[in-house]
Amino acid sequence: MNKIKSIAVASLALTVGLMSCDSGELRRTPGHIYAPDMTYSRAYDAYTSNPNFEDGLTSRKPVAGTIARNNELPDHLVEGDTNAYKTFTTSLRFNEAELDEGRRLFNIYCGICHGNNLDGQGPLQTSGKFASMPANFKDAKYLHMSVGQMYAGIKYGKNMMGSYASQLDIKQRWMVIAYIKKVQSENGGDPYIFGATTAAAPAVAEAAPAKEEPKH
Ligand code: HEC
């Protein structure tokens, strides 16, 4: 009997205990914050407004006229200047790893339409749901297309193909073109010109002050 009583008391206590957790209203405050200076950043978060700048934006654009490290110089190509497209080129040359990166990027951004083997038969095209025929890079029409024209195609898009300027930076665009040109060179296109003749020069090491043991 005693046992049943104590079970009843315990379950009553548990019910009351649990009910007291639910105030029946929505809780709008998170309660106590253990480390407020971590919960609420003192720095301006990227997408919050910022009274320190006239335009109120916290995320700043690079200073006009500057180029971030490891980025290419601007290309100065003007949309619609098709004569410039034809002669536009680059002095960039790529090693095996970069060529491989070009293939990887192509398969991510272009293969869906142009096909991972560059024949214009990507899944979007073969699904029949895409109204326009993507370029078949193995076709005579594109085998000898100038690299500048390809670059313009990526930067500005063409008809049903959108621009890839925001997805691929300048070097990445050229790596993708190098990959296309490499495949084309193996399928009756022009000789491949993007190959690095020597191994890529090692990046200039930052001049770090040598750490020395303090002498006594
Ligand atoms: C949504 C499908 C689609 C995607 C994705 C796509 N393309 Fe295209 N692309 C097309 C179509 C369609 C054309 C044919 C445009 C025309 O001539 O009307 C084309 C044409 C081209 C041309 C020829 C441009 C010219 O001047 O005739 C190049 C070069 C090209 N694409 C490169 C790429 C590269 C590189 C990527 C990836 C970064 C890519 N495309 C992604 C659909 C696509």
How would you describe the overall organization of this protein?
- With 216 residues, this protein is mainly alpha-helical.
- The protein has a domain at 92-185: Cytochrome Bc1 Complex, Chain D, domain 2, CATH 1.10.760.
- Helix content is 38%, strand content 0%.
- It contains 9 helices and no strands.
- The chain has helices at 2-21, 36-39, 82-87, 96-109, 111-114, 123-126, 140-143, 147-156, 170-185.
- The chain is elongated, with a radius of gyration of 30 Å.
- The N and C termini lie far apart (83 Å).
- Bound molecules: heme C.
- Residues 109-110, 112-114, 124, 132, 134-135, 149-150, 153-154, 158-161, 164, 176 line the site of heme C.
- Residues 109-110, 112-114, 124, 132, 134-135, 149-150, 153-154, 158-161, 164, 176 line the site of heme C (HEC).
Secondary structure: elements and pairs:
Elements: H1 2-21, H2 36-39, H3 82-87, H4 96-109, H5 111-114, H6 123-126, H7 140-143, H8 147-156, H9 170-185
Helix pairs in contact: 4-9, 8-9
